[in-house]
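User: Predict the structure for this protein chain, please.
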Amino acid sequence: MSVKQQLETEEAELWVVDMQDKLLPMIVGREAVVFACVLMARAARLLGLPLLCTEHYPTGLGRMTASLREAVGESARWIEKTIFSCCGAEAVRRHLAESGRRQIILVGIEAHVCVQQTALELLRLGFQPYVCADAVGSRHELDYDVALLRMQQAGAVVTTAEAVIYELLGEAGHPAFKQIIELIKTADRERPS
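Assistant: Here is the predicted structure, written as structure tokens:
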């Protein structure tokens, strides 16, 4: 099945992958990654996108970091997993079948493990992954760089959180335009250097 490259709010959903407290201290540029994930989660809620959050072995690796947990809100679907690809979890596969959405925006960690394996599996299953480069991270820069390259070469769209937000917004006439602009302005003031 062919999937459109242009993001559309009725086709897209946001997946927040394994942004857990015990993993984050090792991630290069973690403050910026968390910041971009929070921005993306808040925008997704304003735009009415479904949110799916995964936690990899939370018993050992802890829960999702608090600031992101708050940004995601109560309506997100939460799935615990032990397999690296989110698509390997039966609950995620059921979610994909039920949602009917074909465009999956990926944020989280680690870029070269769970995010990459998820993106590759989504492609194999006929979905279009969009990887927000500023909202994914790894412990080592080389792993991060090669993961983005590999995902892009495989057919994933590599982009940024702000580019995704404006693409979903589409126009100044969108009902959420003023809220999104305020969100972006606030983000510009608070963005980690």
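The radius of gyration is 15 Å.
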